[in-house]
Here is the input.
Amino acid sequence: MAKIISGREAAALVAPGSRLMVSGFLACGAPSWLIDCLVEAGIKDLHLIAISTDYDDRGIGRLITARAVKSCQVSHIGTNKTTQAQYKNQELEIEFVPQGILMERIRCHGAGLGGLFSPVGVGTPVAEGKETLTENGRTYILERPISADVALIKARKADTLGNLVYSKMARNSNPIMAMGAPITIVEVDEIVEPGQIDPEEVVTPGALVQYLVRKGA
Amino acid sequence: MLDRDAKRVLIGKRIAQELKDGDYVNLGIGLPVEVANHIPEGIRVFFQSENGILGAGPAPLPGQEDPDLINAGGGAITAIPGASYFDSFISFSLIRGGHINMTVLGALQVDAQGNIANWSIPGKLVPGIGGAMDLVVGARQVVAAMEHTDKDGNPKILEACTLPLTGAGVVTLIVTDMAVIRVTPAGLSLCEVASWTNVDDVVASTGARLLIDGPVGTFS
Here is the structure.
């Protein structure tokens, strides 16, 4: 059962210094209204978990530009010059996580698993300090779950129970991050009554959603 | 010497010759996207993008861009009839699970062991990993698409990479503006040289020993 709140109320659920997951891929499928509300609320010292920091002026990058983030776990920062500058100046701490493994680590948390053995990054800096397993001649590294205090995601449509439908490639990390935190806040374009979304169409079931925010509200 | 555009076309065209009918292919950002412009006649391939599509089509006409349809570099794309959308978990399951026939990636360095470095120049430029580490361990063929030397003429194909690796022992084929090189258990095998250059120049521009096991073909 999801509660409908405003963007300002959503921002108040994110405490300074907390771990925050934000969805999207290069701002496609990012909760841009919720990001705007967070920036306006001036929340600082966040630990960010995201695929990338998008662009300087668009998507998750707005949080970087606003200096709201002190550390992050991301796969890529190549499209955001501000992130690169803050990283170089050591203002921003970054753990680079391979994108697919970032998704799996979040999914592990959401699915109640203690971690996974991954072949990704073996022989690279990603493997440093991690336990290994060799099986049939192949080496795997232990990757631990990643969770957040709050996840901000974006869907095209929700019903009031929190069932979600996405738009095309704006789905990307959203269904996974919906499992990444005890508080999932979804920015949506449209909210409908239960029964108005065909159960066959639902991608994320309502049990994963705590709050809904209409874009712009 | 070729200019950058001519190099890009030469490399893209040659890699496209490696594709087989029905292949599922992931093209990295930058140089690799050129491959899509040279698919051989009579062959149908399906482009996957890690941000959630199988069946990516060409860029839309100006004014018809859809913000919910982008490639891994953020550029506008279309979806072909029969395309599918999926979340990042399914997308990387396709990649790591061996369901993608070929990935083509740019490279800063590759070496004689099939190692590839393309995500970090410590202290200078660290764009990050993105999907590259998943792609190089999961795709059945890993093709490095790169200029043969850096802008100062230094070799990018080395005995051993000096930059942080993206993957160890993963590259199967290297295609540059000068040569086609296969990575074999014995080392790097020179298969073809570009018609504008010759074997001696290729050897001189390469920082690793090249095996010449048979006749060396040409490509253009």
Notes: Chain A has one domain: 3-97+146-214.
